[in-house]
Amino acid sequence: MSVDCFIRVENLRLVRSGKLIFSIDEFSLARGEVRALVGPNGAGKSSLLLTLALLEAADEGSIFLDGEKAGRSNVLSLRRRMALVFQEALLLDTSVRRNLLIALRLRGVTGRKALARAEKWLDRFGIAHLAGRSARHLSGGEAQRTSLARAFALEPEVLFLDEPFGSLDYPTRKSLLNELGQILNDMNMTTLFVTHDYSEIPYIAPNVTVLHEGRIVRSGTVTEIFGEEFPGRRSWAPWEDPAP
Ligand SMILES: Nc1ncnc2c1ncn2[C@@H]1O[C@H](COP(=O)(O)OP(=O)(O)OP(=O)(O)O)[C@@H](O)[C@H]1O
Ligand SMILES: [Mg+2]
Predict the structure, then answer these.
(1) Distance of alpha carbon 84 from alpha carbon 90, whole angstroms
(2) Pocket of ligand 1 contains residue 45 by CB under 6 Å
(3) Which ligand is nearest to the CA of 212?
(4) Containing domain of residue 204, as a range?
(5) What global pTM score does this model have?
């Protein structure tokens, strides 16, 4: 396996209520790689993402971040190098700007530096005009822009996205996909992107891993997994045979 793996997993298993949720012999993300993680409902995508983000403790196996093995003593410092965005924006009941400032303060960034970072990312996600607005009164698209701006303001080394566009309407989703794809490209951010909508993948991720019943069944480029006609054949489920 390449030494430039930024995240690497060995023999990782998660068991909950006596059930094997996933069993991953090998998985890695290179530094700067953007990879989509797809699979049917219940495949274990969110569980794997939370485990990689060190928010769920695996029952067996190891996770390495930048060559450092995650363990009890370093879990907090490793977590500070990551950020997550979920389908629900999970904002605090305060202003949009303060949502970013509070997250930054938790990572030790305060004062002018925090303010500058918050302004930069609110602007980059097109919501600078909403900075003083209560996060409670945002549309779904605005809330998800806030959640993304908050994640990027933390300047993480790894970004985990769990169906971030799942509850957005088509025009909102399309413009955010374009913007996020551009930003990820500019930033060279190591990213794992869970989605159910394969048509989103080409905007975001050149590589795809397919999870089925807790196991990785395929991994490759978008074309290797979905074929040349993609996204024309997006109703095909990549965990089913035959391959396109
Ligand atoms: N704490 C838990 N206790 C018992 N079972 C769990 C627990 N957490 C997850 N599971 C089970 O693990 C399986 C994988 O769940 P997970 O949420 O990771 O799937 P997913 O691929 O993200 O699905 P979806 O596409 O619906 O979001 C499911 O069968 C779920 O019920
Ligand atoms: Mg899920």
Answers:
(1) 11
(2) yes
(3) 1
(4) 1-81+159-244
(5) 0.94
